[in-house]
Amino acid sequence: MQETCFVVMPIGDQEFPGGTVSASELKQRYDDLIKEALLRANPTLDVVRADEVAAPGAITSDIITRIMHSDYVLADVTYPNPNVFYELGLRHACRIGTIIVRDRSGPKVPFDIAHLRHLDYENTATGLKALAEKLSAYFRHRADHRDHPDNQFQEHAKLTHFLFPEYSRGPSVDDLQTEAFMAVLQAPELMELMMRSGAGEDVDQTEIMRAMAKNPSVAKIFIQALTKSGQLTFLESSSPKRRSKKTR
To answer: Is residue 68 a contact partner of residue 89, using CB atoms and an 8 Å limit?
Structure first.
């Protein structure tokens, strides 16, 4: 599957202490330097900038989706821009895989992000080659350390065992039951016991447990389906029940 990289950087004209940079200059920097360097480092990468999916200045749901789901997000923090800083913060809180770059000839980086690890670049032909080499080294490092935090937020979350909210939708009960049935078909011994039980035969539940123990992968899917549906009756009945003595 093709990896994706979302580029976060100013899009419109930018005024900063000491000068102004136009939207066309920033577009040229993206096309001829940043995007080109990314593709030289990883030729199969799908690279997209914010203005290719939204109007300048707008933080749309599409942009937020790309910040959340892109394999990589590259943020150019050369010019102080509220949207860039906000989107960078969102990415750091979402997941790892963030690349921060900065033109070394640009204005001084704000104190709040000055400590963040970043790649310096020069907006020249030589700078393009150097940036591509740095990005190539970054991609190789990430390939070997995919689960390693790459920003202070994620590092602190890992250190403090922070529990992130879980919004993903798991499989439905019907999906799990279908998967469980297909799994049982791969375990003939378990399938026979289930059929006998379904036909009304008094099957010792211990036999079912033993058959599942012999097929742990099948048992896992089966238990997930029962847990999701709240039907764990076979586990409850697997323990021998004490028969009460009748008194006369």
So the answer is: no
Q: What is the pLDDT of residues 78-106, one digit of tens each?
A: 998 999 999 999 999 999 999 999 999 99
pLDDT score of 227: 67
Output the pLDDT for position 4: 97
CA dist 231 and 201 (Å) reads: 20
All CATH 3.40.50.10140 domain ranges of the chain, comma separated, are 4-159
Distance, in Å, from the CA atom of 73 to the CA atom of 187, rounded to the nearest integer, reads 45
Closest CA to 209 of 194, 224, 228: 194
Which positions ≥6 away from 89 have C-beta within 8 Å? none
Taking the C-alpha atoms of residue 118 and residue 132, their distance in angstroms, rounded to an integer, is 14
Q: How far is CA 156 from CA 89, 103, 151, in A?
A: 14, 28, 9
Model confidence at 229, pLDDT cuts 50, 70, 90, reads: low
Does the reported pTM lie above 0.85? no
Token look-up 């921060």 returns 100
| Residues 118 and 102: beta-carbon distance below 8 Å | yes
CB 20 within 8 A of CB 80: no
> Fold for domain 4-159?
Rossmann fold (3.40.50)
Nearest to 142 by CA among 124, 117, 121: 117
Percent of the chain with pLDDT over 90: 51
The size of the chain, in residues, is 248
DSSP 161: T
Q: What is the separation, in whole angstroms, between the first and last Cα of the chain? A: 74
**CB–CB of 122/94 below 8 Å?**
no
| Residue 140, both tokens | 């190789």
